[in-house]
Each structure stands twice: as structure tokens, then as C-alpha cells.
Amino acid sequence: MKMRFPENFLWGGAISCAQADGGYLEDGKGIDTQSMRYFNPKWDRKERDENRNINMTSERFTEALNNDSQMNYPFRHGIDFYHRYKEDLALLEEMGVKVFRTSIDWSRIYPNGDDATPNEDGIQFYIDLFTECRKRNMQVFATMLHYGIPVNLVTKYGGWKNRKLVYFFERYAKTLFERLGNLVDFWLPFNEINCNRFNPYNGCALIKDQEENYDQSIFLAGHHQFLANAFAVKVGNEILERPMIGGMIARFTTYPATCKPEDVMQTILDENYKNYFYTDVMARGEYPSYTKRMFSEGGIYLNISDEDRQILKENTVNFLSYSYYMSMITSVDPSYEVTNGNLLNGMKNPYLETSEWGWQIDPIGLRISLNQMYDRYQLPLFIAENGLGARDSVEQDGSIHDDYRINYLSEHAKQMAEAIEDGVDLLGYTMWGIIDIISCGTIEMSKRYGVIYVDLDDSGQGSYKRKKKDSFEWYRKLIESNGEILI
Ligand code: BG6
Q: Does ligand 1 come within 6 angstroms of the Cβ of 443?
């Protein structure tokens, strides 16, 4: 098949502020919740994986507040993008990247989240960064919240379960639209909004031992995030000339383990529970009917007012995006082998290979999910993240041969082309971690996604110098040929 991508298809790359920026507490930045996550470079693979899903505790939180180590808190140094972004964007321009996705650090704009006025130095950083993107012919795709919130919003308000955060977020969004609106093309109020459920510290800033009813707090926090998302859409529609404000989830594409009707039904429930609940609210503007049973059986009680329902209904997103890394299977039979995945572990599909981190590699799952999402919502789609986390080795001559990554990316790009042929309206693709960054799940540097290598190890040691991997030239050609090299 001829790989056809629309002429204006947006090939791009994505990173997030906590994983990349560094510049910890510089220029008025406040402390954010991601820089509180502890990592020990001596942990082995098993310990890293175990700590990935560990909930934040009050003890760990207090310890982090009183500890100024960067080595044990890698999100404090990232890859020093804060100081090196010009060099990084020059490399992206060399590849012909058309859109750059990053996130804005709430604690650079409002250091405490509830400050009366924004931090002008923080705003200036983003004006400079996005202007530089424009100079280098890149559109800007900005996420307002990629997990990290100002720590004060946790210590003083208890995180997203407190409705006051809806107001603080709306004000933050308004500031961003007013001050950066002319420099940004695509907005996402929330990265992977369904993460609030699967990693409640990252997703909605809850500390488990401080919650009487953890599940109830998670859904309440989730409701507040839906409202915050809707208010951001409302304010954006009022302020922006051409608002493109999207909703995003981490897409857990799920297949039935067998054709047994029970397994097929379980798949429908899982898809609703993990994925569609979130996109249904953001795109259709109401809690779907299946949530009634989900909530009553889960003992969740949300007192949703008519005003809340109205704000959700009137302020739906105008595109949808998601991260896609892997798929999983599901069954009513609990005896299936389980393997790691993004945010969630899942049952193992015997037809798929896994990455070293256990994530099941499934390019066709991307085509499947694109068809499912487009068919359900008929809204333009954007693949906001996709990529392979792998260990890279630098040869003596400095080269990095990452055929495995080229293979992963090209197989997924082929399936995007198929989905476009199927009729899906796909706006673009920002491959994840285009420059190596700190892993979000396991907080390590050795899990690399980039086509650009960063000389940095798990203890934070290294020159921070950037190097091109083989995939750099491959991605340049892919963009230049608009996918024709995939044939
Ligand atoms: C996504 C997150 O869920 O997965 C990213 O939005 C993250 O922040 C990505 O980096 C890959 O996960 P990990 O754990 O390999 O970094």
C-alpha cells in the first residue's frame, strides 16, 4: 500500500516539563509535585518497577520537602532543557519537525498555585521558548498540566479533591490564553486525564494515607478535573481567535483474551472503565449512562449539580488526543500471565512481543484504536505520544544504532497511514520523548525514547551533551518524504 499522509500532516515530537526542564526553583519557580518523587539509582530493575506504582505517602512527601538532593529527585534536573532549549529546537528544526509538544509548568506561572498575580519571569520563559519554536517553523502544542502541580495546592488544599483547584486552574488557564495564546496552536488542559484513576498522586495529587476513602476522593478529584477542563475550554473559546483545545487520555487498547462472551463483555467494561468514561465526558459533555452502575457498585457518590452538568455540556473539546504505547488483553479468568504497561499492568497477549520494560508492542492496535475513537466521536484526532523506551548504547565512535526504535516507529507510522486510509481524520503525531528525558514511570534515565541522545546517567552524572542516534536521520527522512519512505 502507498503510505499516504495528508499534505499538512503534523509530524512532531513531544516532551514534558518535569521530565525535561530542570531549572529547579529558578526565576521564581515554585516546588511542584513531580520534583517530590524519590528515586534511588542503585535500585535494580525489579525495585524500579515496584516503585513505579507506589503511592506517595506523607512520610515520603515530608522527606522530599526537607531534602534538596537532585540525584534522588531526578525531576529536579531533567535534561536541563530550561537552559538548552535553543540547541534542542535547532536539532528539531534540522529534522524538519512541524510541531513541538511540551507542557507548561504551573509552578513557574503561579509558584504556589493560589498566588494573587502570576510570576512574570515564568511567563517570559514560555514567550521565549514558543517564539523560538515559531522562528524554527514549528507549531506549538502546549499541555497545561502534565502531572506536576504546585506543592502548596497539596499541603494547603489536599490536591484535586478540593474544588478550589478548579478555580485556580481556570485562572491559570486564563493567564496562559491571554499571555501565550498567540504563540500556541494546540492546547491540552490535561495530559492523560484518566491517570487520576491509575496513579492518583501523579494524576490528582492525592496522598493515600491522608484519604479516608481513597476511591471516593479519586472520583471527586476526577470530577473537579473534568470541570477544570471544561472551564479551560470555556475561557479559551472566549479569548482565542482560533481555539484548538483538546482532551487527552492514555489509551489502553484492550482485546478479549478469547471469543468467550464473558471475555468480550469484560472487554467492553474495561474499555469503558479505563478509556471511554474520560473521553465521553470531555467530548460528549456528560457522564455516560454506564457510570451509574460503575459508581453504585464501586460505592462512589458524586453530588453533581445542574450547574456542573451544564458547564460540562456546553464546553466540550474540539479534538481528541491520546498516548498509545501498547495494548493488553482481558478475561474473566484471572489466571493469565500479567505484564507491565504504561500506568497499568495488563494480561499478556501471546501474539505480541514486549519491550524490555514489559510493554506489549502492537502497531495494529494503534490502527484499531484510531478507528474506534474516530468512529465513536467523529472528532479530529492527534496522537500526542507514542514511542519505544529502550536502553541505547553509544559506540566508540559516538554513533548510536537504534534499529529497534526505527522499527517500532515505522511500524506504528504505517498503521497510522492505514487508519487515515480507513477514513480517520488524524491531524498529527508527536512521537514521545523525541529527546531522551527522565522516564515518568520509573524515574530513570536509562529508559530512553529519543532520536536525540542525552549524555546523562541514572545518578544525574554526565555532560548533558546531545547526540544524534540513527533514528534521527530516519525521522528526518520520514518527515521530508511525508511518510513515503515507509513503503
Ligand atoms: C505517558 C506520560 O503516560 O507515558 C509520559 O504522559 C511518560 O509522561 C510516557 O513519559 C512514557 O512512560 P515512561 O514511564 O516510560 O516514561
A: no
